[in-house]
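Newbie here. two chains, one complex. Structure please?
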Amino acid sequence: MLVTEQHRLTEDIGAWVARHGASQASLIPVLQEIQAKYHQISEYAMQEVADRMGIHPVEVYSVVTFYSFLNTDIRGRFVIRLCRTISCDMAGKDRVARQLENDLGIAFGETTADGKFTLEWANCIGMCDQGPALLVNDAVYPHVTPDKVAEIIEQCRKVFGPLAVHHSLANGRREVRS
Amino acid sequence: MTGAPQGLLTFAAIDADAALAAALATSRAGILAEIAASKLKGRGGAGFPTGVKWNLAAAAKGEVKFVVCNADEGEPGTFKDRVILSEVPDLVFAGMTIGGVAIGARRGILYLRGEYLYLRSPLEAVLARRRQRGLLGEGIGGGDIAFDIEIRMGSGAYVCGEETALIESLEGHRGEPRNRPPFPVDTGYFGRPTIVNNVETFACAAAIMAKGAAWFAAIGTERSTGPKLFSVSGDCARPGVYEFPMGITVAGLLAAVGGEGAKAVEVGGASGRCVPAAEFDRTICFEDASTGGSVIVFGPERDMLHVAKNFMEFFVEESCGQCAPCREGNAKILEGIEMLEQGRCSARYLSELETLGEVMQCASKCGLGQSSPNAFLSIVHHFRDEIMGRTASRSS
């Protein structure tokens, strides 16, 4: 890690700890901030958080490794989580999964070489009546079919990269019918 | 039947402000008596009487108490809380405030599952509006009552829907359930008396204050009162959220959602039980087939072994790993299912797996572990012939 990057991370952690509080009750909110901005919680970050909260770094590590949305290794800018639980499974999640793998060129659990996409399974995301469903970061996509996969990925690429000007993920988000 | 109307019927018609005003107009004892008289039971699935829980927390000694709303809706097939929080968030926050007044708490926490992060900013906006309107903060309703609510996000752990694991998570730890007793009502968040209730339970509490305990208790059955929201998914024509009185039969529900001809229905999600077609006259309520709302319909073509495998994969992933029966047992049952798939499981070994499941039900530390073998056991019980003697691995 470059010294400047490390410096920035240190400053960010300092600001988040100041905002959420320096007690262990604030540990998860601070870790969530780190994960959202840096797409990982590095050893350095864990040590830094532990120092500021006055707890053992092992305690921080044990928490980070417990929760599936907190990760020690780096994830992509867009984390795609396809629901694999029974209702989405019966609605055809396997075909969507195959197409995601084909279009991204990675398997589940992997991140693309450019660091843009991570593909993961999710356990029931509460969209059982509108499956197969997936999450791209915090945006939810119901009724996904294999032919829609490329479109979803393209939307992400527009938010990120040379074409990113006026697009945001929120604009591309589908209406969540209740 | 051409189908029942979808969505929130009762909750949509209730004025959250009137509910809170009614609660503020009565005493703490009055609120507790009203909730107890309604015979409301927890909507998350366990069905603990809300009146008893609130009374215990109200009677617990301590200046500092907490109200926690469990919005860690992770049970497979459950999505009613997502709809409640999207459509009637004020009713939930009014219910939490009423709970706070009843037990003497000044702080409420909504623990929202990480998968519902997209609900956070709309909910924060609702909270801000309530603060502006004097419905949260100091001097609620012009009196001397203070109560405020903050939102905390989960991070993708099913077990955090268990109340003590949820509290551990709020305190900044791994979501590992605690021993109970002591119960959260006297030793909860940071050791303080805490009520942890489901989203729908708080909405029900507000509805009860608005319309009265007698109205609520008149709906449903003797021991399962009130309307209940069901999250219906799977092989049916009209999946979605439905409201029915407690005590509806499985067949009645299937007719309403367009699921006639189903082979089986999973009532209560992965931790619930599988009801075969022969038992569709059973009723859905706490006395019979109990559910936090999850109803998953399986059509005639479904392979029930595949269903069981999906549920067991879920539990192997989501077990917190703290106690051996759940951590090792779920992995062992999944391995057994793979043997069944390949047609390599003897009847004797299958009955050993059933015994293992029974051991997990009584020896696991928390509700997750205790209920994790339910789906497998009920599928083995009702579909033994279908799952045994496979000659080649089927794919469904």
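Moderator note: Chain B has three domains: 11-217, 227-298, 304-387. The two ends of chain B are 30 Å apart (CA to CA). Thread marked as resolved.
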